[in-house]
Amino acid sequence: MSRLMPLLTLGVAALFLASLLIGPAPVGVLDSLSALILDDGTPMTLVMREIRLPRALLAVIVGASLGMAGAAMQGYLRNPLAEPGLIGVSASAALGAVIALQTGLAAAFTLALPLTALGTALLGVLLLLALAGPRGASLTLILAGIAISALAGALLSLVLNLSPNPFATSEIVFWMMGSLADRSMTHVWLALPLSVLGWLMLATLGRGLDALTLGEDAAQALGIRLTRLRLTLVIATASVVGAATAVAGAIGFVGLVVPHILRPLVGARPSRLLFASALGGAVLVLAADIAVRLILPDRDLKLGVVMALIGAPLFLHLIYKTRKEFA
Amino acid sequence: MANRIAPRISGSVRLCKALLLAAALIGAAAEAQEAPRRVVSINLCTDQLAMMLAAPGQLHSVSFVALDRRASSMADAAQDYVINHGRAEEIYLMQPDLVLAGRYTARASVEALENLGIPVATFDIVTSMAGVRRAVLEMGEALGRQAAARDMVADFDSRLAALQAEVTRRPRAALYHANGFTSGRASLAHEILTAAGFENIAITAGYETGGKLPLEILALAAPEAIITGQPYPGTSRAERIMDHPVIEALRRGAQGAAVTDADWVCGTPHVLRAIEGLAPLRRALEATR
Amino acid sequence: MTALLALHDLSVHRGSRPVVDHVSLRVGPGECVGLIGPNGAGKTSLLRAALGLLAHQGQSNIADLPAHARARQAAWMPQSREIAWGIDVEAVIALGRTPWLPRGGRLRPEDRAAVDRAIRRMKLESFRHRPANHLSGGEQARVLIARALAQETPLLMADEPIAGLDPAAQITTMEVFGRIAAEGKAVVVSLHDLGLAARHCTRLVMLDRGRAVADGAPGAVLTPERLEEVFALRAFYSRSADGPIFQPLESLR
């Protein structure tokens, strides 16, 4: 554990650098980096600062957010299957983002986009908690997640179909699969405030999630205020997932894969898993985004496709492992 | 001697004249028989070609897309015709004797019409200036207006030649549409661009067949002009790329920008207007180097 | 005597039915109180209400405290023995230190010492670094008891802590509770095993349909009349050189 956090930090730094250096523009490492730092008047500066840098930053923000939110939800529901994508929070956030864009709300004031996404994500989380109950049994959780995703996805399609714009209908692929391609620094500034807010809120949950290992009664008796914990969790999750989805679409499985892999490395402690998953999530999304650019670069492979290819088999494996619960 | 030959020659000349006259009469009769009297067009490009070439009263209906100013160069003219939505039942009730369709018109609708015994003439997508000529002549053939078609082609050729004559330097330009798509060879947009005297950076950057042009490559190519499409109402992610800071910077840095409009869409002689539209930009760029 | 647990007229209602019916109780240091009663008598509800985990009428000194002060005053081991993740035994026990930890959440030397004491008491030394959810049910119960011990509060409350343990472990655990009480703390445990309750508790409180029907020394509480009326039971009870011996003989239902 004591080696894990520095290792993960190193991983984030290395992949961040790699992300800055990978792209269709055939420019060397040193030239790219100097174009980033010094404005040498060549178009490469524009490429580095306005195309590659925002993409790398967003990968870190989105990855950290989804990893941390996944670890928090799993800690609260005491279920390794809980993660924002699977339980419908990402789809709910995407719905909000689409509504904000199509109604022109996003153009009205700057943070309208992530805030609307937060709002619908909040509804999604609340609905999930109402359906799944305090101790999220796997079956109920997955079913609730399917229902919420289906509802949000259907409403999203509807909104896009009603748009006068002929390109809108095909946008659903982006919203449901996610992508970091061609983002700009505007998107970074859009996502950052709510993400940072959410991260800070999630960071306070460590002690409570640890105590919840013993169950709600014991945790309450240990002095944890459960209503406050639940409220913080709900708002923080909606915040980070809302911000991330608003700019990158619904990217699933990060919150499932990262905590699962890191759990044995942190002694299964939910509090440690929170921070490790933030870094781990950043590593995973950076790596996936790099993979997307190396495999089939001219085919615009969506980030969500890579994540699903990694995450879905793991999801199946986890279901198999916990199938005794269903019996 | 001459007297004996002359009567034979004059006899054969008279025979030839008679034969020619007969052929002309037959041809005219054939033309008069083949010319459809009630034509319905269900494709934007055939709409416009038909409107330009048809005899008065020959064209009965055009598609609703012809009314869309964004896509149709003849939106005003289209208002004089009955509007259809390309549905087989609707067309059948109009009792046409010829339907004009595009290669990508809904297969089901075309087959339904053919099954109902209505002849359908299908026109390919035009991707070059030679294609414009071909399309005009084919339309003339279909409508029985060959002479008018030939005149139109001749006019087109002379105007095109005039436009191309004045090019001195070929500035580098980029075509960039929603979703980051550019146009390469074998596309009408490319032909318009090059006929207007520009060099398409997609070709030099290695994207000969068009498709998605990465934003980075566009930025590095630093075109002198960037030509984009007009945004549609409502928002879409596909078009948001036009707001990307890189595009904004290119618009500012480049001497000019231009916007494609309805004249770029179909392969009709209206493409000349598109080429003319780019001329001021090219002249301005020529002057700066 | 300063009461570590003071309940006055405590009532809990489920719908209109009283699950706990006007119970008053005072427990002071040095006492090991066994809470006994048949199934559905309201033992768990009484304990949870006393801790403020259940809505109630009447007064409980623990429930009147704010949440974090409560946790430093009373340790609670619930009946459902959840350990959600494969955390080390040592880490599970260390969770008992949660109410004492400063902001950073790091274990201080005194916290580690408390954990070590609890491990020694429950004889879990060889289990220290094993994942807690790989242990048997009985071993997990001992770990959870150790967690409550590590909390080192003046009052310790446990709901059926020895259910599922083997006889030796049951006796050892009850002896631990007795020793803690003797050290000046107060212990309240709910039990089904009347024999162990008689042997190890200094005082028994008998609940029947939510009411406290008896409160006193085991010999005074476990009278044949009460056993018949409350438990529908006939039992053998006598004092021997090895202490009180209690054996249920016959069900009177």
UniProtKB/TrEMBL annotation, chain B:
Keywords of the record: Signal
Signal peptide: 1-32
PROSITE patterns from the UniProt entry: FE_B12_PBP
The keyword Signal appears for this protein: yes
Fe/B12 periplasmic-binding domain segment(s): 38-289
The keyword Signal belongs to this UniProt entry's keyword annotation: yes
Biological process annotations from GO: cellular response to iron ion
InterPro entries in the record: ABC_Transporter_SBP (IPR050902), ABC_transptr_periplasmic_BD (IPR002491)
Domain of life: Bacteria
Matches recorded under PANTHER family: MOLYBDATE-BINDING PROTEIN MOLA, VITAMIN B12-BINDING PROTEIN
Protein name: Iron complex transport system substrate-binding protein
Species per Swiss-Prot/TrEMBL record: Marinovum algicola
